[in-house]
Structures are given as C-alpha cells and as structure tokens.
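Input set for joint prediction.
Command: fold jointly, output tokens.
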Amino acid sequence: MTDNSWIATTLACVRPQAMSALLRYFRDLDTAEEAFQEASLRAIKNWATNGPPRDPAAWLILVGRNFALDEARRKSRTQPFADEEAVASIEDPEPDLADRLDDSHYRDDVLRLMFICCHPDLPATQQIALALRMVSGLTVKEIARAFLVGESAMEQRITRAKRRVMAANVPFEAPGAAERSERLSAVAAMIYLSFNEGYAASGGEVHVRASLCEEAIRLARLLLRLFQSEPEIMGLLALLLLQHARAPARLDADGNLVLLEDQDRSLWDRDAIAEGLVLVDKALRHRRPGPYQLQAAIAAVHAHAARAEDTDWAEINALYRILERLQPSPVVTLNRAVAVSKVDGPAAALELVEPLSDRLAGYFHFHGVKGALLLQLGREREAQEAFDRAISLANTAAEAAHIRMHLDRMK
Amino acid sequence: MQYAILCYDSEAVVGSWSKERDDAVMAQSLAVKTALAAEGRMGPTLRLMPTTTATTVRVGAQPVVLDGPFAETKEQLLGFYVVECNDLNEAIDIAKRLLHGSGAMEIRPIKALWNVPAPDSTASD
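tokens >
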C-alpha cells in the first residue's frame, strides 16, 4: 500500500488528544490551533518518508509545542518580555513530556477541550461550530456548508465563540468528579444537538449535512472510549447509531421523508444496529436509566422489528412512561401517544394529545400527530384543520411535503 | 501446523475509514483467504466490534464484571485469522499479505483447536 491517505486519517483521529494537550500547555485556542496546523504539515512530509511514528499524538504534541515555543521566543526578542507563567513553562519540557503522554492524561485533556467548546456561556450554535472546528477538525468551509450558512458568517461565529471562551477564564486544572459528570452532560448534549441538526436534513441538503451525523457519532465514540463505564454515554452512542442506521431508508427517490412505518427495512445498516443493540445491553446492566438510554432502548425496539407490523408498541409505551417520569416533557408525551394509539387505539391517544395543545401549539409535529389521530377517528374536517396548521409550521420542505401527503391521501 | 494471526490496529483509525477504504481492505483480506482456502489452509476468521462494546469478567472474591477491554492499549485487537502453515516463514508471508498500511499482525502458534462437533440428530435428549 503506497497511498498516503492513512496520514490524513491518522491526523484526524489523534487530533483531539494532540489539540487538547497543546491547549493545556498554551492556554490559548489560537496558539494550540497554529501549533497543531504546523505539526500536521510537518507530519505529512515526515511520515510519508519515514512511515508512521509509534505514537502519532505524542509526535504531534512534541513538534507542535516546540514550534509554538520557538515562535514565542522569536516574538519576545522584538516585544516586551513574556509574562512569568509562560516563561516558567518554557524551561525544561522534556521530563514533563514523558509523564504527560500517558493515556489517562489524554482523557482529562480531551474532556477539557470538549468542555471548553461546550462552555455554558456559548449558545448551542456556537458550541457545535467550535467543537466541530477544534475537536473534529472540520474546515470552516465544511462546517458552513453543513449549517447552510456562508463561510465568512461561520468564520465569525467561530471567532466570536473563541473570544467568549477565552474571556470566560476557563480553569485548566483537572476536573474533580462532580465537575466531570456535569461536563460530560454538557458535551453529550452538544453531540446530540449536532446529530439532530444533521438528521433533520432532507432533499438536496442530505449529503452535505450527513457529515454532522457522522461527526457526532465519532465524537460520541471518542467520549465513550474515554468513559467506558458511563451508561448514559453508551446510551448516547447507541441512540445515534440506531437512528443513523435508518438513514438509507429515510428519504424516497424524490427526497421526501419516508415515515418509519413505511421504510424499506432491508436498507437499514445492520452493522450499526448490531453495535447499537450491544451498547443498549451494556448500558441497561448498570440499572441507572437515563434519557439517552431510554431513547436508545426505544430505537432498539424498532430495530428488532423485521416489519413495522411486528413492532412491540406496548414495550415502547412502557419505555416512554419511564422517560416521562425521568424527564417529563410534552414532546415525550406526544411520542408516547403514538405508541398508545397502536396499543389502545386513536381515541385513547387523542386523550393524551389534546391537553398538550397549549404547550405544543407552535410545534408542527403536534398538529401532524393530532391530524393523523383525528383522521383515524373519521373526523375529517378537524383532521384537515390540524394538517393545514402543521404545514404552516413546518420547518423544512420535507416536513411540509410529508404533511401534504396526508392531505392528499384524504382527497 | 496451525497459527493464529491476530490483527492489531488503532480502532479509532479503522473506524474512521471511508466505506471505500474499508471495502478495499476487506477485498484484500478476502483475496488472501480465498487463495488459502483453495489450498485447504484457511481456518476460522473473525472481525470484532470496537472495544467500547467489550465487557471483561475478572477473577475476584466474586467475579468482577467491567465495561471495556481487558487492557487499554494504543492499538486494539480487531480480529484474527486461523491458518494452516508448514512453518513460521509461511505464516509470516501470509501476515505480510494481510498488512494493510497500518497496525500490526501477531503470529501465535495454536496449541490446540477444538471444532464444535455437529449435533448428532440420532441421539436422544
């Protein structure tokens, strides 16, 4: 094998460890980024000739660190003396380095980097953009395309995010246990949001936005490797895998949404499903149910059904019940109502749905579900009204088209 | 004599392979396996799921069940092949044919290999 694509793959894979270690040394996102860039350029030349180093992350950290230190020294000759702390860390990096190349340090470093990207001062859009740039290493152009915004707009979004984070005076010490669990939740939430951004795509956008799903899965895997025994992180990865497994069947030839019950299940990614199911199993053994585990378990019930008719809706209803108790929300109740309609019929489901109308008045899916239930009960005029309302609230063309399909079927 | 060829590589890297790359590596592996099978020298082969799907059971006062692989290593065990060879050199040649640009192959001679006997349909329960 003489092609050098393995270099790019390796760089992408060790990026989180290398970037986060450089961030720890230099305490500045831009410096860490420049150092990593330079080290990567050198890696591309060096590894092509000499083959892969035994520890690519360590190689990049060493080269990146030396480069940035040289730059700092160079600049300090022409500028006022660098501040005390920075000077102290320049002194003798070598003994430090051996100690820091341990896997357990990578874990704290990577988590710190991810937490910085998911800083509570940042709105969700900035968190995702920063994480994709800093951790995943997507180019600004790629991220811009995935979010359907212009490149300079995305550049600004990222710059603003970096500035806000650096201004927030983030601590660079290792997090204690309580902090760590809080940070894990924040990072998991960012990954989940990022996945949903990609998952919501349809039509011409799909291929562009699918990268968001794939990056979210990669980040979830990274997080799970670092925290092997966290059931909610197992649940998160399982959920993403099980949902993403259905992607090949989600759209028809015209780019319209195909409902779960109508999907060609032979197109589902069986390997992703197998892995997702294993993770659900592993998570449930801990008997610490959580929202990601429950949603993953629900997705697993769907994955187990060879055909839509074989779906164990009673089990789904039971799982949604637990989720409702853990994390009550009108959306969860709405989703449970769909299961109830399969088990107890549309009238029972409608009883669950109607009280939600105040809180979900602006949610297109609420009106879509309500319309479908009314239709099943033969209340056509009311169903029509609900579907019209749903269309007016639809976020994407695919969502609107999907409701329109219901309306067409009524004629 | 039978050898196990154990495949080690970074699962993060392997998991990041594009579908094209993965297909190409699988095709390369299949070509080697097909050739060996034609010579009657191919044994079982398996590809494992990532170590995040692993569970380890250890000896303790009670058996201890832990999430994750037995050991955290820089490269992970991803799978193995069983091959029939006349000597170590042959096994090394096969391992070289299986190398795919990253990782390493460990060759371990097999002390004993038991095949699962086919169920005897005439036996009473």
